[in-house]
Amino acid sequence: MTVDPHRPSHHSPSQSPPVTIAEADGQHAVLAFSGDLDAPALRVLEELLLDERLRQPGAWTLEMSDLHHIDLACAYALLRAVTRAPDPAAITVRGSHPAVHRTLRHAGLETVATFED
After folding, report:
1. pLDDT beyond 70 at 3
2. Nearest to 98 by CA among 63, 64, 56
C-alpha cells in the first residue's frame, strides 16, 4: 500500500498534512511542519522522507515554527532519514517550540542538526 503524503488518511481532505516539501532543488530542500506530528502521521512522514526530491539536496531546512507537537517515533524517523543517507544532508531546524526542541533533542537530532530560532 502506498501512502500519499499530500492526503493523509487521519486528516479530512480540507486539512493540510503535518509535513510537506515546501521547496526542493538540487542543493536545498525545505520541509514545512505544522500541527501535530504523532503516531497517526508517522507513515506519512516516512513516505515523505523517501521522496525523490530529498535524495539530492546537500542541505535541508526543517521549518517547525507551526509545529506544536512531535512524538519520539516521528523524531526518530527524522534522525534515521538523516543518518542512513549515503551522503547525509546538512540539517537546520528552524523555529521549533521548546517542547518540540526537547523531543528532537531526546531523539538525538542535536548531534546531526543545527537549531535556529
Report:
1. no
2. 64
Place of cell 502506498: 2
Which residues 6+ apart lie within 8 Å of 33 measured at CB? 18, 19, 62, 63, 64, 66, 67, 70
Alpha helices, DSSP H, located in 1-117: 42-49, 72-83, 98-107
Q: What is the pTM of this model?
A: 0.85
Query: What stretches of 1-117 adopt beta strand conformation (E)?
Result: 19-24, 28-37, 59-70, 90-94, 113-116
For residue 61, what is its C-alpha cell?
A: 531546512
Cell of 77: 524517523
Q: What is the pLDDT of residues 43-83, one digit of tens each?
A: 999 999 999 999 887 999 999 999 999 999 999 999 999 88
Beta bridge partners of 61: 30, 92
